[in-house]
Design goal:
By secondary structure, the protein is of the alpha+beta class. Helix content is 54%, strand content 10%. The longest helix is centred in the N-terminal third of the chain and has 18 residues. It is built from 8 helices and 5 strands; from the N terminus they run H-H-H-H-E-H-E-H-E-H-E-E-H.
């Protein structure tokens, strides 16, 4: 393959659009992002029947996107506050998981893992809360900037679900978020004007974090 190949602007943009989530979400270390970049470059170049550009071009693309993401956010307080809310929920036996897969179905699967841990350890189970990749993508979209949180009781009881929802909304409000919710167990909680400002910090924010916090308060 010709390492001096310069990709057409539309192909380069398609690649950068595919990379955007990995770079901007703050959940992936640089090595993982670079690995994703290689795969995305290879797939899109193959689909368009063009040569793969040089290694330096791939690295420079990732670094440029990372620099752009870093410079686009001046305040890192939003995600820290959200993390604090989710940690508090886990301490209160409401399962709270960040980046719970790609869809709501994935999120429910991840909740099920923590539910089983709680059941095995006789920990009371009040309910759950999570957001998934599609929710993050909406929050990162400048035209939306809204983070949706799925929640419910663990046994399908709608009255308990409303209580769980009220507690989630209360903690969000206490932490300075603009919360929109109609008090219905069938409506997800929305956090309006949410600036996605997470940066990668080597912390785990998924299943393991929820279980670790619950172990600490057992």
């Amino acid at each position: 393959m010709d390492e001096n190949n310069v990709l057409a602007a539309d192909i380069q943009q398609e690649i950068e659009d595919e990379l955007y989530f990995y770079v901007r979400s703050g959940f992936f270390p640089q090595a993982d992002i670079l690995g994703c970049a290689h795969q995305i470059f290879e797939d899109i170049c193959m689909d368009n029947d063009v040569s793969l550009p040089s290694e330096s071009h791939i690295r420079q693309t990732v670094e440029r996107l990372a620099d752009s993401a870093e410079s686009s956010v001046t305040d890192r307080n939003n995600y820290v506050r959200l993390r604090n809310v989710f940690d508090a929920l886990n301490r209160e036996r409401i399962i709270a998981i960040h980046f719970a897969g790609y869809t709501q179905s994935d999120g429910h699967d991840e909740v099920g893992v923590v539910f089983q841990f709680m059941k095995d350890n006789n920990i009371p189970r009040r309910g759950y809360c999570f957001y998934h990749q599609q929710d993050i993508e909406r929050a990162m979209d400048e035209s939306i900037k809204r983070l949706y949180l799925a929640f419910h009781s663990m046994n399908g009881d709608e009255q308990i679900a409303v209580e769980v929802g009220k507690r989630i909304a209360e903690l969000l409000t206490q932490n300075g978020f603009d919360v929109e919710w109609d008090n219905s167990p069938g409506t997800r909680i929305a956090v309006n004007n949410f600036l996605w400002d997470k940066v990668y910090d080597e912390e785990d924010y998924g299943i393991d974090r929820a279980i670790r916090i619950m172990r600490e308060v057992m």
